[in-house]
């Protein structure tokens, strides 16, 4: 059973780490679940439905939705006036009498700082959306892999049942030949041992299938005992959209959005170097009798603007970093695509052989060997040899199909790496 693929990327590492951690925690529960309960009524669903449910139920995507919601709310913070200053002064500041002075002052941002803040926050909303799209991509891949892992388990079960039928017939023939004195007891003992072995494997396969089911259920994140639709073909059919194109589009959108955020950050820091204007009002008594009022106006001038200048320069460096990361990921995806395509063609060639010739040979070997052995035209040891050869072909076909599916899914969903 293949381990969960690793996403060696920033910002994808956190998602992969959380996904693996939860998956491993779920597997620890499987032994207890299998020991105490049997799988109840199972709901058969298509791959498309499983992916749809996963994207609807997945907690990581719900967290991503909350991040988008949070960044959207923060758009309201684009206009950032200074806190209102209210001051009271009392004492003998005009004469021997105790006078009072109350003043209120408010500073407001000038120039393009509000616009720059709003544009930055809009880009942060888009960045959160790009992160969610990447998480959804990884979830779709995980569900697809686990879906076909279960179908692989079903195919192994079917092969086991077929083997059981073959060796059960073999046992009957061996017993008949022994009763008629045509063969020794060794054939009967050997056949019984093989039947018992297959029955034991059947019990083990049931546990494997239960584990595969829990894996699928975990990725879909549902309490329902869902299983793949048994009408689904064992062989995975690739979508028309090129996997590398989709992955490259997602990774390009993400890093380009990072670049946009860094550009807007630089604009924001530059705008913070503009002075702020302030207006105020005061009311004051003189000799405790008369009330005098007035207005004030002023500027807050950032004399030491080197901090924001340095921050703007740092944002410009971040732009270069994101561009370099994008270039690296494009190169990595292109090389990965070539490797995956070669592996896919290799596995497809192997699968074609078994589908066009191998399985037919296996069936012919089994049928011919059974007839010859039943008629007494073939020795026990020759029969076993031919039978094992045919069974091995069928096993190799099942494994070839499983390996083909994995290569096809990997080609459809190339991993997003940044190492």
Tell me briefly what this model is.
The chain has 419 residues and is α+β, with helices and mostly antiparallel strands. Helices cover 68% and strands 11% of the residues.
Spell out the blueprint of helices and strands:
Layout lengths: L11 H25 L6 E3 L1 H11 L1 H15 L11 E7 L7 E11 L3 H67 L5 H36 L5 E3 L14 H29 L4 E11 L3 E11 L5 H69 L5 H33 L7
Parallel strand pairs: 1-4
Antiparallel strand pairs: 2-3, 3-5, 5-6
Helix pairs in contact: 1-5, 2-4, 3-4, 4-5, 4-6, 4-7, 4-8, 6-7, 7-8
Key structural traits:
419 residues, alpha+beta, Outer membrane efflux proteins (OEP), 4-stranded antiparallel β-sheet, two-stranded parallel ribbon, 8 helices, elongated, TolC-like, transmembrane beta strand, transmembrane, coiled coil, TolC family protein
How is the CATH topology named?
Outer membrane efflux proteins (OEP)
The residue-averaged pLDDT reads: 85
What global shape is seen?
A: elongated
| Secondary structure: helix percent | 55-70%
The overall strand count is: 6
Which consecutive residue ranges, at least 5 long each, have pLDDT under 50?
Answer: 1-17, 22-39
> Which strand order do you get reading across the main beta sheet?
2-3-5-6
Any idea what the CATH superfamily is called? Answer: Outer membrane efflux proteins (OEP)
**Cα Rg:** 36 Å
Give the CATH level 1 class.
Answer: Mainly Alpha
How far from one another are the termini? 26 Å
Strand content: 5-15%
């Amino acid at each position: 059973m293949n381990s969960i693929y690793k996403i060696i990327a920033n910002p994808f590492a956190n998602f992969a780490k959380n996904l693996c951690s939860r998956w491993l925690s779920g597997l620890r529960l499987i032994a207890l679940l299998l020991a105490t309960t049997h799988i109840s009524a199972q709901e058969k669903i298509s791959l498309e439905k499983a992916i749809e449910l996963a994207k609807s139920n997945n907690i990581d995507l719900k967290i991503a939705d909350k991040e988008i919601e949070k960044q959207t709310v923060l758009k309201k913070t684009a206009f950032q006036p200074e806190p209102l200053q209210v001051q009271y002064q009392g004492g003998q500041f005009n004469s021997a009498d105790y006078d009072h002075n109350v003043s209120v002052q408010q500073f407001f941002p000038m120039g393009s700082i509000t616009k720059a803040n709003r544009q930055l926050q809009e880009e942060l909303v888009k960045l959160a959306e790009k992160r969610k799209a990447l998480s959804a991509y990884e979830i779709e891949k995980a569900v697809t892999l686990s879906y076909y892992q279960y179908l692989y388990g079903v195919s192994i079960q079917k092969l086991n049942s077929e083997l059981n039928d073959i060796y059960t017939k073999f046992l009957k023939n061996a017993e008949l030949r022994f009763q008629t004195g045509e063969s020794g007891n060794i054939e009967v003992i050997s056949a019984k041992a093989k039947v018992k072995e297959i029955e034991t494997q059947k019990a083990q396969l049931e546990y494997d299938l239960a584990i595969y089911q829990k894996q699928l259920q975990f990725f879909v994140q549902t309490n329902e005992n869902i299983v793949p639709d048994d009408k689904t073909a064992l062989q995975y059919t690739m979508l028309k959209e090129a996997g590398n194109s989709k992955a490259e589009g997602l990774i390009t959108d993400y890093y380009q959005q990072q670049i946009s955020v860094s550009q807007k950050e630089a604009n924001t820091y530059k705008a913070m170097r503009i002075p702020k204007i302030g207006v105020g009002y005061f009311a004051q008594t003189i000799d405790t009798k008369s009330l005098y009022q007035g207005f004030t106006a002023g500027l807050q001038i950032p004399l030491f603007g080197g901090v924001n200048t340095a921050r703007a320069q740092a944002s410009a460096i971040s732009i270069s970093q994101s561009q370099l990361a994008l270039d690296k990921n494009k190169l990595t995806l292109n090389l990965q695509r070539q490797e995956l395509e070669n592996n896919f063609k290799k596995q497809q060639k192997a699968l074609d052989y078994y589908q066009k010739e191998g399985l037919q040979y296996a069936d012919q070997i089994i049928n011919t060997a059974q007839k010859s052995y039943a008629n007494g035209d073939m020795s026990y040891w020759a029969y076993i040899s031919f039978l094992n050869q045919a069974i091995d072909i069928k096993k190799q076909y099942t494994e070839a199909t499983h390996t083909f599916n994995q290569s096809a899914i990997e080609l459809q969903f190339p991993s997003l790496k940044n190492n």
